[in-house]
Amino acid sequence: MKRILILITLVGVSSCATYYQSNFTFNQEFETGQLDKAYKTLQHHSSQAHGKKEFLYFVNNGLVLSMMGRYQESNDFFEKAFLFGEDYRINYLNEVASYLTNPNFTSYKGEDHEHLLLLYYKALNYLKMNNTDDALVEIRRLNIRLQQLSDRYKSPKKYEHDAFINVLMGITYEVDKDYNNAFVAYRNALQIYQDDYQKLFQVSVPPQLKTDILRTAWLSGLKDEFENYKSSFGMTDYVYHENEGGELIFFWHNGLAPVKTEWGVDFVISRRGGFVYFTNEQLGLSIPFSLDGYSDSQISGLASLEVFRVAFPKYVERPPYYSQATINSNGDELSMQLLEDVNKIAFKCLKERMGLEFSKALLRVALKKVEEYEVRKQDKTLGSIVGVINALTEKADTRNWQTLPHTIYYCRVPLNEGANALTFTLKNETGKTVDHPFSYTVKKGQILFHTFSSLESNFPNYGGY
User: Fold this and answer.
1) How far is residue 147's CA from residue 165's CA, in Å, rounded to a whole number?
2) For each successive 10 residues of the chain (465 residues), what is the average pLDDT?
3) pLDDT, position 146
């Protein structure tokens, strides 16, 4: 009976809503560009800063404040998110509760790419504030995170290197006039685009990156590398010319990252030897579950089951409304170049650990069913109640950083010394365009940074998610 009361209490505090639905007001305000309202809504849920969603609370605050131009406040939140990742420890009591209910009883620790991107935003904030020293601190942190990612995964089919982050590292070193380290970072990015990104995400080498490699090789005095890359890039006519004015590095954050929701999978149980097998022929799955450590009655109860449903997380893409963009400056039209497909990386990260997700979910449901069978032997009514509670608490973890962009593009724009005017033009699949004028004042040799976020999507209503 005590077990029943505990479960009823847990059901009372558990919600059937996905993470997106439980934050629907904030999401609608953010997606429609009402950043002041979105930020106020976040503050009304400040208790999340000490709960199981604290990582998401910190990064959402950081991103919204960055878009509002409040860069130092933004970085204060991103620093909290970074420290959360550094200090994350498993709460084993919550882990046990998650196997009795669902994984939402554990703290959301963040995906691999989310921890990298929070440092991208943090470094970019510092660059916008002309604080190169602190931007370099974030770059060193990013380098450590990249090494950790590479050490964790050794398969060529896994997301274990990030080309975009290496481009950012190169840009930051270049701002600091550390051309040798900039060259190394750009060269690493080139290799990752060629070896990993083209195969995993269908993202090719940005043409701008080739110019960046040649420029920094020349400025580093690496004449052999300079000549070799000129030849391999087919850019034998390239000659380095010092920019007579300044430069703008323009980042375009297009669309929104995917929403994580859930899907239910029906499994058939069969017993063979010391294992029961959870099988779904449609998906080609047959996952064994060891019976070691269970009593004969528990084994009998588990093996007597025929079909049951298990909830798993899945992503739903939010295709961006705009498909391309250009910058017109001083009579030249420059195309925005794709750096990072955040959407595809998110799908890849979840796919890589789906084996673990399946195993944990099946173990969770198996434990619930064993307990239900034990209670039914003593009291059929209570057993029925446990069955209902088990069904109500069967839920996937649908938390993720949903305010991230779908894709990230960039363009390096030469500027004249003094005042400059340019036009940023967005274009959708039908050819419809929207112009955004900007003006900048730059000193000779100065590098400016600008970010433009397009929040529009072809599927703007996600109430069902």
Assistant:
1) 12
2) 47 65 93 96 89 94 98 98 82 53 78 94 98 96 86 68 94 97 97 94 96 98 97 96 93 96 80 76 76 63 63 91 95 96 93 75 68 68 63 79 98 96 96 96 96 88 56
3) 85
Burial class from Cβ neighbours inside 10 Å (0-12, 13-18, 19+) for residue 121 reads buried
The pLDDT, as a whole number, for residue 50 is 84
Report the C-alpha gap between 382 and 376 in whole angstroms: 7
The answer as to whether 74 is a domain residue is: no
Looking at the structure, do residues 330 and 358 belong to the same domain, yes or no?
no
Q: What is the residue range of 429's domain? A: 246-258+318-341+406-465
**CA nearest 42: which of 59, 22, 61?**
61
Q: How many residues does the chain have?
A: 465
Q: Contact 264/275 with Cβ under 8 angstroms? A: no
pLDDT of residue 291: 67
User: What's residue 298's pLDDT?
Assistant: 58
What span, in angstroms and rounded, lies between the C-alpha atoms of 203 and 200? 8
Q: Is residue 383 part of a domain?
A: yes
244: which residues sit within 8 A by CB, 6+ positions away? 416, 417, 444
383 and 461 in a single domain? The answer is no
458 and 412 fall within a common domain: yes
d(CA 1, CA 8): 11
Find where tokens 């420890």 sit. Answer: 89
Please name the residue that has the structure tokens 């208790």.
Answer: 47
In angstroms, rounded to a whole number, what is the distance separating the alpha carbons of residues 170 and 184? Answer: 8
